[in-house]
Amino acid sequence: MSFLPATSLITSIAELEALYTDPVSPAAQIKVLDHVSDHYRTFIEASPFMLLATVGPSGVDCSPRGDPPGFVRVADPKTLMIPDRRGNNRLDSLRNIVMDPRVHLLFLIPGVGETMRVIGRAVISADPDLCASFTMEGKAPRSVIIVTVEEVYPQCQKALVRSKLWDPAIQIPRSALPSLGEILAAITKGGFDGKAYDQAYPERLKQTIY
Fold it and tell me: 82 pLDDT exceeds 60?
């Protein structure tokens, strides 16, 4: 960041708090619970999409997770269960959880401005009966992430309102951006058949979605 003058960088909490002098709103403090209330549960069970943030020796990872609404199971007010569906097998999130149990979840609901945040600690279970209870299209996940809730609270609408995330008018066609095959071909300087990769992807997705 050599293009920034050193005097503009915030390097202490005191400098940060001197910049943001507005008081924290009472609602921002009241809304934080140490468990999933009935109202908060309705948000989690309505969400088909969640971001899972983990931290480990190699750094921070943030992974998208999605399934039909209710895919994250509220087992009790202090426990959430997340099926680990088939992915790219890098296991970044799972490796982090094994090394460091701290997790942060962010739930989104299509058309709804508020998001729901959950902070907690996670373990990974490969219990056959538990995994079987999350079976989709005849396939059970290999493991289930079990989160012990420490904090849960909704985030206000400002970010989604500013971004117009749910506004169909700002959606762009997928063809307006490079395909993954094109990106991989460019990275390998022609050593990867990007066109064949893109052509095969719809069927590959169908076969490996679960």
Answer: yes
Contacts 24+ apart (CB under 8 A), 125-134: 130/81, 131/83, 134/71, 134/73, 134/81, 134/83
Q: Which of 75, 66, 74, 73 is nearest to 110 (CA)?
A: 66
- Helix, strand or coil for residue 71? coil
- What pTM was estimated for this model as a whole? 0.92
Residue-wise over 36-70: b if at least 16 C-beta within 10 A, else e?
Answer: beeebbebbbebbebbbbbbbeeeebebebebeee
pLDDT digits (tens, 9 = 90+) for 156-198: 999 999 999 999 999 999 999 999 999 999 999 878 999 999 9
CB atoms within 10 A of CB 105: 24
| pLDDT band per the 50, 70, 90 thresholds, residue 4 | confident
Q: Do residues 60 and 53 lie in contact, with contact meaning Cβ atoms separated by under 8 Å?
A: yes
Which H or E run contains 121?
A: strand 115-125
Q: Which residue in this structure is represented by tokens 């809730």?
A: 149
Whole-angstrom Cα distance, residue 17 to residue 32? Answer: 21
